[in-house]
Design a protein that fits this description.
- This protein has 7 helices and 19 strands.
- The strands form 4 sheets. Strands 2, 3, 4, 5, 6, 7, 8, 11, 12 and 15 form a 10-stranded antiparallel sheet that branches. It has a 4-stranded antiparallel sheet with strand order 16-17-18-19. A 3-stranded mixed sheet has the order 1-9-10, with no helix packed on it.
- Residues 287-291 and 298-355 have low confidence and may be disordered.
- It is an alpha+beta fold.
């Protein structure tokens, strides 16, 4: 109740609480803290995300209807690199709305029910490379990259899970600019009004939302070199790494390729529901960047359909789709996040857009 303003006020009170004065105020504050404790994640033994578990050669990331949004995605030769530049692979398809779950090595090997203080849920893009590898693109200041550097320091592969779907609050919690020390899962529980159920991964030391649609478990190579690589002058990309990109970003420009570590999806850890819905955003330029062009020349300005049909309260830069895999992989039912329209998409076309 109260909409976004009430939600913002409540968050502000949690982040910067005022010390209570008087007995009644202290009792009220105690009740508030008790309620906050109920928002913490809860551990369960079974999860809907593990109704179907694929192993070994059964794993094929290309079976997932992951989008290629723009023509130059994944091909560095299209943005000025020589024709012999190695291409990352994956047909320019990127996972862009997956929650990336990582922990610091200091939190490794703890019992399943014990809190992982370092656990981070980020949202980084992952370019498909082959049937069981993706690139893992994160900026150096992100917590996921900080965890990766800690694992690299001790010389061990980094456990990581890509989580698609789950409670609707999870994507926002993963991208929210939370204060240091505030857990994304605790914040998600606060938004949902109850704790997020977590289940133990099948093959790595990680817990993930039990209600997720798909979980990709595996390890990120720590052999990879750092960013700032140029294939024209720096030789081979090196072990455990790939030249990732370019990627048509929400800025309206392609972000240029660079070296990023490889994520290997290991055996026994492509877990899904029996009927799987995959959240897939179509990345496009922000409406705020297009409106000035429209004001200057309304006759020739082309609006992305994301601006026309997506609710700006969530994000004007994403056009959300949900792909439901059916027996015939050539066709999937598509519905917009707004829930106001639906259509049928031919996956060979990459994506289907509508208003």
């Amino acid at each position: 109740q109260g909409g976004f303003e009430a939600l913002a006020k409540t968050i502000g009170q949690l982040v910067k609480p005022e010390p209570p004065s008087g007995v009644m105020a202290k009792m009220k504050k105690g009740l508030e803290l008790a309620k906050i404790a109920s928002f913490a994640p809860k551990y369960v033994k079974k999860g809907a995300c593990q109704q179907v578990v694929k192993t070994g050669d059964e794993i094929n990331l290309f079976d997932l209807p992951i989008l290629k949004c723009w023509p130059h995605d994944g091909d560095p030769r299209k943005v000025g690199y020589p024709v012999d530049t190695p291409v990352g692979g994956g047909e320019g398809r990127f996972i862009t709305l997956g929650g990336i779950y990582t922990i610091h090595p200091d939190d490794a090997d703890k019992p399943a029910g014990e809190p992982r203080q370092s656990r981070n849920v980020g949202m980084y893009r992952a370019q498909l490379i082959d049937k069981n590898h993706t690139a893992m693109h994160w900026h150096m200041h992100h917590d996921g990259a900080r965890h990766w550097r800690a694992w690299k320091k001790i010389g061990k592969p980094m456990p990581l899970a890509i989580v698609l779907g789950g409670e609707s609050v999870l994507p926002y919690a993963a991208t929210a600019p939370l204060p240091l020390g505030i857990s994304e899962l605790l914040f998600a529980g606060f938004l949902a009004g109850k704790g997020i159920d977590l289940v133990q991964c099948k093959t790595i030391d990680m817990q993930v939302p039990a209600n997720a649609e798909i979980v990709l478990e595996g390890f990120v190579s720590t052999e990879a070199g750092m960013v700032g690589y140029d294939p024209r002058t720096d030789g081979e990309v090196g072990p455990g790494a790939v030249f990732e990109g370019p990627f048509g970003d929400h800025t309206g420009f392609y972000s240029l390729p660079d070296r990023y570590p490889l994520f290997e999806v290991t055996g026994g850890d492509l877990a899904t529901r029996l009927r799987t819905h995959i959240p897939c955003p179509k990345i496009s330029a922000r409406c705020s960047e297009i409106l000035p062009r429209f004001a200057a020349n309304p006759a020739t300005t082309r609006f992305p359909r994301s601006c026309c049909s997506f609710r700006p309260a969530i994000s004007p830069s994403l056009h959300g789709f949900i792909f439901r895999k059916e027996k015939n992989p050539a066709n999937s039912c598509v519905s917009s996040w707004t829930g106001i329209s639906s259509s049928t998409a031919n996956l060979s076309e990459g994506y289907h857009s509508f208003t």
